[in-house]
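Please discuss these two lines.
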Amino acid sequence: MAVKVKLGGGGRRYDQEGIPMRRPSSNHPLWKRALLFLVIVALACLLLGAVTFGYYYNHYQHVVDDRMNNGPLFASTAQIYAAPKEVRTGQLLTAASIGQELRRAGYNVNPNLGTYQVSGESISIKPGPGSFHNTDGATVNTTGGSVQSITAENGVALRAYELEPQLITGLSEDKNRTKRRLVTYSQIPKQLVDAVTAIEDRKFFEHNGLNFGRLIKCGVQDVMTQHAVCGGSTLTQQLARGFFLTPEKHIKRKLIEIMITLQLESRFSKSQIFEMYANQINLGQRGSFAVNGFGEAAQAYFGKDLKQLDVSECALLAGIIQRPNYFNPFRHPERAIERRNLVLKSMVETETLTPGEAERAEAEPLKLAPQNVDASEAPYFVDLVHDQLQQRMGDQQAAGTLRIYTSLDPDLQKAAADAVAEMMPRIDEMIQKRHKGDSPIKYPQVSLIALNPHTGQVLALVGGRSYGTSQLNHAMSSRPTGSIFKPLVYATAFSQSLSGMSQGFSESQPDSGTFTALTLLNDDPQDFGTGGKSYTPGNFEHGEYPGMVTAATALEHSLNIATISLAQRVGYENVAAMARSAGIASARPTPSVAIGTYSATPMDMAGVYTVFANRGVHLNPWLLSSVRNDRGDIVADFTPEARQVLDPKAAFLTQSLMEGVMTRGTAASVRALGFTAPAAGKTGTSHDVWFAGYSSNLLCIVWIGNDDYTDISDNLTKKVQGADTAAPIWAEFMKRAIKLPQYSDMKPFTPAPDGISIYRIDKATNQLADDTCSTGSFNAAFLNGTQPRNTCSRMGDGNGLMNSLFGSDSSTAGTSVTGGGQSTGQQGQQPGVGGNGDQPHRNIFQKMFGIGKKREDGSTAPPAPEPSPTPPQPRQ
């Protein structure tokens, strides 16, 4: 029997055999102590994590606060509007088409702007408090596709009524050149919300901003594949990343993203978060602009207001969120359709769409808006508006969202962009065929500007071939003006005649000092050198039209030598002064000024031609009409600038010559191409090519040239001309414009001012035409008393051929016509213009041999050849 004995020695215990007994183990075995250690470490880590989380949570709370308190969530957006479209009685419009126009402007969609109601062939319009007009409404009655009457709310009959301006674009003031149309959650279609959540975040309305299941799954997948490709982010996380972070994927950024996500979820409701997401999300690129937000994307891809999208279109927008460029429907329609159909299947899985509805939506083809961004959004025009706003308003732009009302006509802008898009490939083909040598082919750039000639309103502007390729606005690039400058030389001569400055112009009345369309100009090669330097220019075609030619022929066929000789006679200083007053600031008094060697922008030249189209009044082309804030208060209004720079008679006489250019001269190709409305114009062919022309209600300038400022005809087997490049674009544009209701009434130009009459002139003799003339005739405008005094073939009454041969005098002036009728000018002598004259008329033999003609210094002039009886056909 064992007996335990307790002995000394430090309290050790021994059994009966005296063997020391083991001390009992402690109350905390090793595994428990290890567990305790782990718990302590975990608590420490948790505490440290809590402190760290609290620190960063607080830190990013301040980051979010600063972002929220630093103005609106989105950069200040300028809403840029077109000019209001005018409805006039007699216009080809229906009540339904007017309603569509108003709906595109926001009526009925946004009652604050206004409402309308179509009833049969009538439409009642009521602007709202946020309308551009904020005036009384009206009722427009149409019958058979045309406007019959317009009645104001108070019963007064109106001749015209302006509709609400269309929104062109919303332009954010940030470095990313973002276009955005802000929308509220209530304006987002439910089917778009369903589509986005089905494909991007099915539990969006249930989670607190983080979907831990997806996060863990994607984390494991990314580790296994060693590529961060799994999309585990919720909509809130995407929003946090878009507002505050860069798109790169790494751990630190992900943790920060989570912090900001929790902040957003704690401060905003789900509908507010989705609204911010809907306005922020990137959905591709349009030209050089980022398309952000569903509102802008609906317009960019479908040309619709967001609320007008159907389920198929909503699914497409939701589908391209993942990879906007990869699924771009314009570039990759097959990919876009496949992705859209995947979204529709996801909507079926979330039970927001029935299988039948999804099947019908999948069967729908892509119905995209026209891809021509220059036509739909006028980007060059918008950029120019933006620049002018900065120059004129500066920091005022930052004062909230502005509504910018401009001069643009969207329909005409589309016509301009489409005309350029259609015709430039043909010019490229011409350049290809004429190219010589091994040097790279240079394809030229283009610009087109269209104005209202009587207001200066810039109605359309194309600044280049493609805004996506080049954002340089060639409408504002200074280039040599070439021959479209020449009308200013002739206008200067007419102006001097009106002021009584004698230059001995008239061939029939040598001392009268009157310049007319039939004044003879010397087109022989001449040296116009000054200051000891020789200057011997030639015509476009060597040897063309030698000898004496009429002023009308010289301008019609763009003869350089004859035009410079005219400028020499009227004074280079006077020509340059006229050009500067008309808007060509670079013009200097040298011989070459007459043929357009000094530079101006296409916009400048558009202003120059308003002088001829507007009875001598120069109008500065303008784009900005009014700027208002988001409450409709006027921030700034802009008044067009106008000044009289030319006598109305001189402007009309010059216009008459340019009508001849269109009918018989270098611009006759315009008529051959099918544009037949009354018009005046001038081609330009030198370093670049131009066409400038106008009708009664539309003025258009077309420029074509190389970006590197080299001659457009370099390395070509045959030079290109304004007649075969710029003129066809002009004609195509004008043909499209005349089909639009607002420009369909191109009429003959207004009657001649008092003191001017229009006569029929025989081509062969340059005398008044009568019924017996068989060689053809043309109209020409003359100051009263300066027209020819002989007829072409009346031989027995002193007014015909015998008079021309032998110089017998006659006081009979012949019959004047204005479009086939009687003259509208007064038959009387104008002061300083010259009368019937007391000098004997030189007969044909005197003209042929120069007998009786004196130089300005009084010496006898050498023989000079007469004009060719039948002028050569114009160049095409």
Observations:
- The mean pLDDT is 80.
